[in-house]
Amino acid sequence: MKIAVVGAGIMGTGIGQVFAEGGLEVTFYGPRRESLERALARIAKNQEQMRASGLAVDEGSLARLRVTQDLGEAVGDADFVSESAPEDLGLKQALFRELDRLAPPRAILSTDTSGLSITTLASVTERPERVVGFHWFNPPHLMLPVEVTRGERTSEATMRETCGLARRVGRRPIRVERAVPGFLWNRLQLALLREAFHIVEQGIASPEDVDLAVQWGLGFRWAAVGPLRVVDLAGLGTFRAVADYLYPELSAARAPQPVLEEKIKRGESGARAGRGFYDYPSGAHEELIRLRDARLMTLRRVLAPDNGT
Questions:
Q1: What would you measure as the largest C-alpha separation in the chain, in angstroms?
Q2: pLDDT, tens digit, for every residue of 73-104?
Q3: N or C: which end of the chain has fewer CB within 10 A?
């Protein structure tokens, strides 16, 4: 099976790495040679860190990767196209017109969008039944779930083939049967973040304690058993009783809260800027990413000893 990865940024790089490690032939497309070279270097670094952490790495995977600055060459004989261009609807629509023209009729055209309409992207092609959402989570070379999202005209065969491809490369497909904004992952993530922002803004708890509650409380437990299973184990009546008095007290914000907007206006946009909800010394962003990935690799080794299959 031949895979074309369109986009050689962080996401495209990790996705291509996973496909190659799954034994597939992968062609990276990027408009600039230097971005393609960075992608290959990033994969080599990822694999070095995975080896050091005790995760299995296919030593022949880099030999299955090739790069090109010619989109037609990348997708001309592809069976599956994975698009990871920036989150700009107009840009992606223009790209999908080209992919539809250049890729074989048999090819599935997938997008890594985290929330743009699959149906709208499919509408600019002559194969809407072969267009599907295939949203990976960052960092894709370590995270196991992937969202497989159906557009209005995506066929069941395309959904099954894409889920099968995910399983083939050791990933766990999440079927999203209706392409609502945010799909599944971001709806859950933003629901929790909305309340987290509210808690900090109202002075209920500090950012440090919110993170502590999630990282070592909710996240720790949810890593062992998901939230709906937790409800089953504790009993639906218990959670119904809590929901009855607590739902009216939760944030119902319909727009990003002032605590977020004000920080952005002050230039406190996150770790790269030196300050977000926390203060960061120079160079901390890269070190925190390294630490995050090291912890994810440890969790992978413990929770998915068979490499997620």
A1: 59
A2: 999 999 999 999 999 999 999 999 999 999 99
A3: C
Residues in the chain: 309
What pTM did the predictor assign?
0.92
Q: Tens of pLDDT along 271-291?
A: 999 999 999 999 999 999 999
Q: What is the gyration radius of the CA atoms in the chain, in angstroms?
A: 21
Strand pairing category for 108-111 and 131-136: parallel
d(CA 56, CA 82): 24
How many other CB atoms sit within 10 Å of the CB of residue 293? Answer: 17
Question: Residue 179 and residue 133: Cα distance in Å, rounded?
Answer: 9
Average pLDDT, the chain: 95
Q: How far is CA 250 from the centre of its chain?
A: 27
> Could you tell me where the DSSP H helices lie in the chain?
10-21, 33-52, 71-75, 89-102, 118-122, 156-168, 185-201, 207-213, 219-224, 227-234, 236-246, 258-265, 284-303
Q: Is the peptide bond before 281 cis (omega within 30 degrees of 0)?
A: no
Residue 83's identity, in one-letter code, is E
Q: 169 in helix, strand or coil?
A: coil
CB count within 10 Å of CB 27 equals 23
Number of Cβ within 10 Å of residue 136's Cβ equals 23
Nearest-angstrom CA–CA distance, 122 and 111 = 10
